[in-house]
Amino acid sequence: MDHVFAAAAFAGTDLSCRRGGRLVFAGLNFGINSGEALVLRGPNGSGKTTLLRLMAGLARKSSGVLTWDGADVHDDLPLHGSRLAFAGHLDAVKPALSVRENLAFWADVRGSSLTDIDKALKAFSLSHLADLPGRVLSAGQRHRVALARVAMNGAQLWLLDEPTNTLDDAALSALQGVLQRHLQNGGMVVMASHGDTLLPQAKTLDVRAFIAKARTADLESAA
Amino acid sequence: MDHVFAAAAFAGTDLSCRRGGRLVFAGLNFGINSGEALVLRGPNGSGKTTLLRLMAGLARKSSGVLTWDGADVHDDLPLHGSRLAFAGHLDAVKPALSVRENLAFWADVRGSSLTDIDKALKAFSLSHLADLPGRVLSAGQRHRVALARVAMNGAQLWLLDEPTNTLDDAALSALQGVLQRHLQNGGMVVMASHGDTLLPQAKTLDVRAFIAKARTADLESAA
Amino acid sequence: MHKFANPTFFMKIANAVFPWAAGLSVLCFIVGLPIALVTSPPDYQQGETVRIMYVHVPAAWMGSMVYAVMAASSAVYLIWRHTVAHIIARASAPIGAMFTGLCLVTGMLWGEPMWGTWWVWDARLTSMLILFFLYLGYIALGDAFEDQERGDRAAALLALVGSVNLPIVHFSVEWWNTLHQSSILSMQGFSISTEMVVPLLLMVGAFQFYYVAVLVIRLRAELLAAKIRTARFNLAATG
Amino acid sequence: MRSFAAILRRDLMLAVRNQGEMLMVVGFFAIAATLFAFGVGPEANVQSRMSSGVVWTMALLAALLSLERMFALDFEDGTLDQLMLSGAEPAAVVLAKTLAHWLTTGVALLIAAPAVALSFQLPSQAYGALMLSLLLGTPTLSLLGAVGAALVLGSRRGGVLLSLLLLPLYSPVLIFGAAAVEGAILGIATTTPYAVLGGLLILALTLCPWAGAVALRHAVE
Amino acid sequence: MRSFAAILRRDLMLAVRNQGEMLMVVGFFAIAATLFAFGVGPEANVQSRMSSGVVWTMALLAALLSLERMFALDFEDGTLDQLMLSGAEPAAVVLAKTLAHWLTTGVALLIAAPAVALSFQLPSQAYGALMLSLLLGTPTLSLLGAVGAALVLGSRRGGVLLSLLLLPLYSPVLIFGAAAVEGAILGIATTTPYAVLGGLLILALTLCPWAGAVALRHAVE
Ligand code: HEM
Ligand SMILES: Nc1ncnc2c1ncn2[C@@H]1O[C@H](COP(=O)(O)OP(=O)(O)OP(=O)(O)O)[C@@H](O)[C@H]1O
Ligand SMILES: Nc1ncnc2c1ncn2[C@@H]1O[C@H](COP(=O)(O)OP(=O)(O)OP(=O)(O)O)[C@@H](O)[C@H]1O
Ligand SMILES: [Mg+2]
Ligand SMILES: [Mg+2]
Asked: ipTM above 0.95?
């Protein structure tokens, strides 16, 4: 936590993604630099989650390029993975491990320091739950563990899929603080959201704008 | 949909619930009549989900009584189940069945009419997705199917656990409309929530108030 | 290479090949079957039952060959992501399973008079049965996913991994002493008489061309099915 | 009754959708027997002596493998919560799902069994006994299996735990099933194994739905 | 390397937490073999003849049962997504999880095998061969199993489908494993089966982590 990051640029050009044989979006461009945030908007099913997974290198793009400082991220996916942190709809909390053990495992895999764990636990008011097994956590508590994992692992790019779901008010403002600090330190945040205003300074990208194009491109290739 | 319900009262007295050997809350009372709504509030982990599952007869209460028009609901759990609809953190949408088939199955089990399916689909703008398999739905679309199931099955008591999560703006106002109509028809709604104001007229119950009691009771029984 | 990867261009070639393959297959059957079943000499040991060989042996060879085709096209699909290669593999699987099944059935029919039993758990027979199961596994895996592309890729990988079984089928007779005949095709040429070799080769040709012809038909169907899937999906999702 | 039919219909529909599920149980059954033959080697007289045992054991393992998912998928996606709230008797839910399981796997096993038995040279006089014993035995396997599957819901090691629970319960069925076939091979006309198999079936039919219902109630708690 | 050790450590920790997982594989192995003995009946010489086949087949089925969950739990709770993004080579992830699987189940099988063999009256001169062949063979089973388990992630019928895929791939290991024991029973000193088992192990060790990695990439897509 509280890493300071060098200047960097993450961008996508002419991205399109096909799921189950159907184009979800096409011709999508975005760009984000250190210290900037991008909020993905769009109605349910417009492709926010798909775009986040594509940015992470999890989903397979159908066309376009995704670059980090100008270099194609698909040339070295493990490297790209190591500079980002992703929190999706699933929390990746092991029921049999305690909260601290869960975080320690990720610190271990990433090689981040163990003192970061305590800071992250504190930031999301999880300290008193640290020794409880993941199994007994409530939905919001589990989600906060996932956010603590993101905060802790020293990645410059944070990809968050509707991070405010299930959070209570205290957790919301904690998240806001953590995000702002990350941006100040030169981090980047891309976040799907339905209306909250955690990051007033963020640029927005309405994914809906690329659906229409997607349909047209689909029809052309079918012809 | 649009059933009109007779007057009824659902109440709980001195409820306490123990999960994994720990009291989650104790001494909790609530009461709700036809046409009324109750919003459960409280920070993450305070016991909202637990209370909803207890009201549904899914979780096992440690003490207290839960009554419907004065009769203990635990005397006939299947009957109690048939007069309520529950939407929890899980959506119960089968990936291999289409949206319509998913709803048709529940209509079939409940014996509700098939025209209600179309109305519910329309209410949550799912009509154009009706023939898509559940697997391809986005998080918000899947959640809307779960809400459509609730709206459709003709139950008087609706138990909704953070129903606004993952919904886009259009779906939020659709949900608001459906809830208001249900209340006007004599339905009851109990809903866990972190801050939205879908039902301004609702009574609120802050679950946090019963945690302290729970801890004390826990300590006493330990002593 | 990339030209072939274009479905439209590929289907043009396939459609051009089709009448030739179908014609040659029919021709080989018309010429080969009468020789194999009527005019070729009976075996001095096995008598008339030897005629089963003209179906059994080509079917056995095709069973392995089609699997090899499947494995090779799966590799192309995984490495260069050419969908056409995968569609070839996918379309081949049921045909290969059919040949393998035919080999098993004719083998059993042959075994009854020759060995006095329908089935023994001998190495070659069992390895052929396992090849049959590999085909079934490939088909099942391809269909087991909600997402078609996911099934395609999983099945392709399985086809590759499963190809380690091919040498076992072939060399099983050499590794274990078994009831089953050993190879008629060896370094020295054929170990059976020419009167038997000719109809055998004709039948092999007939089976080969049959495979190509049916493959083209199945390719057309697979490509159409893919188009229909997309169209239906778009229709449903746009309303 | 209405929900019973609805659940049965849906489960069969899901089985048909997931094409080849029946095929897969049959496939496993046949492959396990094949492997066994490989492991034991090709001496025909050893095999003929073993055939009834092999067929029965493999049928049992095949049934076992397909059991784990009987409730697990419904549990994980929240469907089980909903079924418990549907107003249906939990025992009816268990019975409907058990029947669907038997119709998709038990029947498949019945169809595959003669082929596997043939490959192990089961004497021809014993086929009737094999089929009859499987017909009486496999529903009991599905019923006991439903209880086991409900019990391990939410546990960490479903598959292996389930086997461990069920194999002892399955042993009486196995013993008498194999005994019936054995009797037919040796030409001893005996009705005892059938009577026991029938008795076990009736016992399972009366007890298992209730036990399964209790287990389901605990699972959703 | 760091992530390899971290994943291995965590998987072993989870195995220890879920106490008795090793015990369960052993339990399944023993019970399945017992059932088999029940099914076949008590003629000692039949059993002695079959012992190598039974031990190997049951070991294989036990390994198979425990495989399904190798990646499934991580897949369902989102851990697999995170592992793919952890900066580790996917092949290292596969290798770490395979090693953990082998340490918890393969080793358990090795320990249980002599007892089961004893109950089937395996001739005493064959125990060395049994252990050596299992030692060479079970890692291959885990490696091939990892590829299979990764392939069926997200499919509809994990368990049975996995068996259908793996049993054919397992057959060479089974054949040569049983052949080694057979050789020892008959007193034929032969190194071929061991050479083949060793060769298969090396082949699997070089290919399976990569194949598994490709399968995992596809699974998270
Ligand atoms: C179900 C039983 C049988 C099966 C599964 C089977 C399988 C096979 C296979 C896989 C081959 C091709 C081997 C290769 O790749 O080179 C083959 C070839 C052959 N089979 Fe069979 N067979 C069976 C029964 C029989 C019987 C009963 C006979 C005759 C007694 C027989 C005679 C032959 C001959 C002569 C060949 C050609 C030899 C060669 O080129 O390898 N088969 N069989
Ligand atoms: N199986 C369990 N064993 C022990 N404690 C549990 C178990 N399940 C939940 N708890 C505890 O019960 C408390 C209440 O959980 P519950 O899910 O009801 O909270 P909630 O109010 O719904 O929270 P959220 O807003 O995060 O959804 C939590 O503190 C949790 O740690
Ligand atoms: N496996 C799949 N096959 C086909 N289409 C899919 C698949 N998964 C998702 N889709 C489609 O892709 C679209 C985008 O889904 P995505 O999950 O990215 O939406 P989203 O913007 O995150 O929505 P939400 O706000 O509901 O989370 C949806 O319309 C969905 O129907
Ligand atoms: Mg989403
Ligand atoms: Mg909750």
From this structure: no
